[in-house]
Design a protein that fits this description.
It is a single chain. By secondary structure, the chain is of the alpha/beta class. Helix content is 20%, strand content 28%. It is built from 6 helices and 16 strands. A hairpin with a 2-residue loop joins strand 3 and strand 4. The longest helix has 18 residues. It is globular and about 55 Å long.
C-alpha cells in the first residue's frame, strides 16, 4: 500500500466479475414523465458490485429505488456498503433521506466524501434532513451510519484501490476511479472540460490522465456544443469535448451521463448518435452509450458484456 493511502475494511478479495447498474442518470433535478421514460428521470445514483463489495456512487433521487431493491434482495441479512459522494449539490444527495437500508438497524452504511460546501460532509447531509425540510433527522436513522470526510486522493475500499480527482465544478467536487480486476471504472458526473481548477492547474490534462485507459467512463455530457456556449462556467460537460478527451485517453467505453432536465428521450438519443459519429469520424474504436435507468454493465476479466 502506498504511504498515505487509507484502507477501509471491506469484504473478501477482488473478484473477476464487476456489475454496474444505473439507478439515476439525470442532472440538476428529477424529471419524471412520458418524455423521459426511456432514459429515466431520477438524479444521479450508480450501483457498483465488485464481488461481495457493494459501492454506491452518489445519492441522487435514484437512491430511493436502489434502496427498495437492496432491502428486497438482502431481507434480514445485514448489508455492508460504501457510499461515495462526489459533492453535496442537492441532485447528488437528495435521495439519501429515502434510502430504506439506512432505516434498518442490521445494516452498515459507510459514507465517504470530501468537504461539504459550508458545514462539512456530515453537516450538509444532516442539513437537508432538518425538521424544516424532512420529518426524520439524520441521527435518528436506525442504520449504522459512518460518515467520514476524506483528506487524501487515494484510499482503499476493502481490496479495491480508489482514486479521487478534483473536478471542474463549482464548490468541492470530485470524480472517482475504482480499480478492479476487470479494468478501471471511472465516475465523473459533474465536470466542465474547459477552464482551470481554482489552483490554476489546467483541468483537461489532469482529467485526461485520471480517465486514461478506463474500461468504463461514466461522464458528464450535459450540453451540446451550442448549449455550452451559453453556459460556460456552469460546471458541466460539453459532449464534443468529452468524446474527444475520452478518445485521447484510450477509454474503452463511454457512458453519456447527467442528462439535462430539458433533454427528453429523443434529444438524448440524438446526442448519442452524434457522439458515435464523432468517434467514427476520428477512426476510434471506443464504444459509446447513453446511461439509462435500469441499464447494467457486466465486466469479466477485462471483457465487457452488457446485460
Amino acid at each position: 500500500m502506498k504511504p498515505g493511502v487509507k484502507e477501509y475494511e471491506g469484504i473478501g478479495t477482488v473478484p473477476e466479475t464487476v456489475r454496474i447498474k444505473f439507478w439515476g442518470v439525470r442532472g440538476s433535478i428529477p424529471t419524471p414523465g412520458p418524455p423521459t421514460v426511456f432514459f429515466g428521470g431520477n438524479t444521479t445514483c450508480v450501483e457498483l458490485r465488485v464481488g461481495a463489495e457493494l459501492i454506491v456512487l452518489d445519492a441522487g433521487s435514484g437512491m430511493r429505488p436502489l434502496g427498495s431493491a437492496l432491502a428486497k434482495e438482502f431481507g434480514e441479512t445485514p448489508i455492508h456498503m460504501t457510499l461515495l459522494i462526489t459533492h453535496t449539490h442537492w441532485d447528488h444527495i437528495q435521495g439519501f433521506p429515502f434510502f430504506l437500508p439506512a432505516y434498518q438497524a442490521q445494516n452498515q452504511v459507510r459514507i465517504l466524501g470530501y468537504e461539504g460546501a459550508r458545514d462539512g460532509l456530515r453537516g450538509t447531509l444532516a442539513g437537508q434532513m432538518e425538521s424544516s425540510y424532512f420529518p426524520v433527522a439524520l441521527h435518528e436513522m436506525p442504520g449504522n451510519l459512518v460518515i467520514e470526510e476524506l483528506k487524501e486522493p487515494e484510499f482503499r475500499i476493502g481490496k479495491l484501490a480508489v482514486t479521487a480527482c478534483r473536478a471542474n465544478h463549482p464548490g468541492m467536487c470530485v470524480g472517482y476511479r475504482v480499480e478492479t480486476a476487470a479494468g478501471a471504472v471511472v465516475f465523473l458526473p459533474d465536470n466542465e472540460s474547459y477552464g482551470r481548477h481554482p489552483s490554476g492547474i489546467p483541468i483537461a490534462g489532469e482529467v485526461r490522465e485520471f480517465i486514461r485507459g478506463a474500461e468504463v467512463l461514466i461522464a458528464d455530457t450535459q450540453y451540446t456544443a451550442e448549449e455550452y456556449q451559453m453556459r460556460r462556467g456552469w460546471g458541466h460537460g460539453c459532449l464534443d469535448e468529452v468524446v474527444r478527451e475520452a478518445l485521447r485517453a484510450d477509454v474503452k467505453r463511454l457512458y453519456l451521463f447527467h442528462h439535462d432536465p430539458s433533454h427528453d428521450d429523443r434529444f438524448v438519443s440524438g446526442m448519442l448518435g452524434y457522439a458515435r459519429e464523432l468517434v467514427a469520424f476520428d477512426g476510434g474504436r471506443m464504444e459509446v452509450e447513453a446511461a439509462r435507468e435500469g441499464g447494467e454493465i457486466l465486466l469479466r476479466s477485462r471483457q465487457l458484456a452488457v446485460a
